Amino acid sequence: MKTLSLHELSPFVRLCGEFQLPPGFRRDPYFIYEHEFIYVISGEAHYQIGKIVHRLAVGDLLLVPPGVLTASWNDSKLPLRFLAVHFDFHFHGNYQNLPPRSSRRITSELARVHQPPPTTPRLLLPRKVNVADEPGVKLLLERIIGEVAHKPPGHELAAKACLLELLVFLQRRDFRKQPSPKQSHQAVELATRFLESHYSRPLRLKDIATAARLSPIYLERLFKHATGRSPMAYLSQLRVGRAKHLLGRTDMTVKEVAGAVGFEAASYFTRVFQKLEGVSPMRYRRMTRGLEGVELAVSLTRSPKTGGGPHFTIPTRRS
User: By the 8 A CB rule, do 3 and 120 touch?
Assistant: First the structure.
């Protein structure tokens, strides 16, 4: 994928309007050749982008990428009303000779082969964000739709300007809400305490950010700067640390240990444990149970040979 510099950024609106999906609506997997902003005016719906499902509610703004299989459905009792703006970050031709964008037999391979060369700017844009408290976002989208629909003189420039203003807003949104250094320290502490108290539950970055009273994007940046790890990496290490205690001190099965520390699948737990500790959970248990009277020292440094996770140093017995 080509990366545009900000000097090359020149968004081009292809299609836009206000739309409505009735209750029970379901659209089969499809893909688009351009990017798309979706803003929910009323109602609810689900959008699946790739393997990730996003639940949309009033005030949510979703950015749908090109060339990724997407499905949508409305299983609520109310219709979904939304604004949609399809655009390119840089104009790269028309799409008349390309195949239809919706098909029951569509595949990721087809999407990749037939889409125009995608471009993305050097911007940090959220996939989904709620902007219900930012009425200016809806006004910008409505103005784009109005310019394209009525085509007054200079409407292309006006639509481009509105889209650029929206991109600037999304780029600056987290920075406008940056806490002070003291508040940043408190936010990291809140996130850490939340993880230590709730590690056994299914957690998403959004849950941790809510506890820290920050946006997910800014929390991840702040947490990594303070600890050297992302919140989710810290969570994995915390869970593995608790799992080591259970493996060494209880007779719980590996599956039971995995569930107790927050892993939904034992196989995934085993992969994470192996990556961080250098051995499988079962081997760790055998090693700890087989060293009666000998302390098992665990090095927190990376293996000098493999560059992998922490490794074990087993002291020799004294004769």
Answer: yes
Q: Which two tokens stand for residue 141?
A: 């989208």
Domain carrying residue 208: 181-228
Pick 111 or 271 by higher pLDDT. Answer: 271
Q: Measured on CA atoms in the order 264, 269, 272, 276, is the torsion positive or negative?
A: positive
Q: Measuring CA to CA, how many Å separate 270 from each of 1, 279, 305?
A: 34, 9, 22
3-state SS of 143-189 is HHHHHHHHCCCCHHHHHHHHHHHHHHHHHHHHHHCCCCHHHHHHHHH
User: What CATH number is attached to the domain comprising 247?
Assistant: 1.10.10.60
CB atoms inside a 10 Å sphere around CB 191 = 26
Q: How confident is the model at residue 123 (pLDDT cuts 50, 70, 90)?
A: low
Do 109 and 190 belong to one domain? no
- C-alpha 127/C-alpha 116 separation (Å) is 21
Residues 6+ away with beta carbon under 8 Å from 38? 47, 56, 60, 61, 62, 64, 82, 83, 84
Examine residue 319 and state whether it is found in any structural domain, yes or no.
Answer: no
Of 83-97, 138-152, 255-269, give the lowest mean pLDDT range: 83-97
Cα four-point dihedral sign 137, 142, 145, 146: negative
Same domain? For 143 and 169 the reply is: yes
Spell out the alpha helix ranges (H) of the chain.
108-114, 135-150, 155-176, 181-198, 205-212, 216-227, 231-249, 254-260, 266-277, 281-289
Backbone phi and psi for residue 240, each to the nearest 5 degrees, phi listed first: -65, -40
- Tell me the sheet residues that pair with 129: 61
What rounded mean pLDDT belongs to the chain? 80
Tokens 């009303």 correspond to 81
Which pLDDT belongs to residue 164?
A: 93
